[in-house]
Amino acid sequence: MPNMSLIYGHRGVPVKFPENSLAGFAYAISHHIDGLEFDVHLTQDQVPVIMHDERIDRTTNGQGAIADLTFEQLRRFELANGEPVPSLQEFLNLVSGEPVHLNLELKTDRHYYLDIERIVLRMVRQTDLIYPVVFSSFNLKSLQRAYAIDASQKYAFLTSARLGNPDEFATHEHLEGVHLEHYQPVHHVAERVWTVDEPIVMQQLFAASVNAVITNNFELAQQVRAAM
């Protein structure tokens, strides 16, 4: 029986393209990836954009905090491949109608963006998507705010710590899943493990039938899964 664990590209395909770039996302979709994981912040004028860090210094030719830049200012800078920092709307236009699962991380753990949950939820609801988006965050309060706005969506808590009782915690917080840095058995909600780049660890997680692995190298993960 084929392994049914899904494979998500962590920030797209960072082993081949700049992380969180439209080129990387498009490549992954064209090569039959199961899912994409990506990160969303708000600019100063409340435009949702896709980037991991709170600052643009590491991944662009510019400097500054996303929260201090308008969208127009942000677009003056480029990723390593010459692309501008993508907006969430551009990403949603790319994936609309595509058979790809989405894990949208609200980057609210270090800086809280006012109204990010409402703005992002509204934008996603207006997009024709095949699979429901999983909204994740390290900030539990952000997930609670999102749930209060729209209880019909799927939410998952991100953590690098081990949870005492992940199933009970997920039920209490209305979570569809937990996204764990360290694998531990979870029985009644979806378990997605990040960031998995070693083949032996991929094999172990596929054997455990986790819901998904999140990896920087989805093509390697596809090969490992196909060989099992």
Describe, in plain words, how this protein is organized in 3D.
This protein has 228 residues and is an alpha/beta fold. It has a single domain (6-226), classed as Phosphatidylinositol (PI) phosphodiesterase (TIM Barrel). 29% of the residues lie in helices and 19% in strands. It is built from 8 helices and 9 strands. It has helices spanning 22-30, 71-74, 88-95, 116-125, 140-149, 166-172, 199-207, 218-226, and strands at 6-10, 35-42, 48-50, 101-106, 134-137, 154-159, 177-180, 190-193, 212-215. An 8-stranded parallel barrel has the order 1-2-4-5-6-7-8-9, surrounded by 4 helices. Strand 5 (134-137), helix 5 and strand 6 (154-159) form a beta-alpha-beta unit. The protein starts with 5 loop residues before the first strand and ends with a helix.
Observed structural traits:
29% helix, 228 residues, PLC-like_Pdiesterase_TIM-brl, Glycerophosphodiester phosphodiesterase, TIM Barrel, alpha/beta, eight-stranded parallel beta barrel, single chain
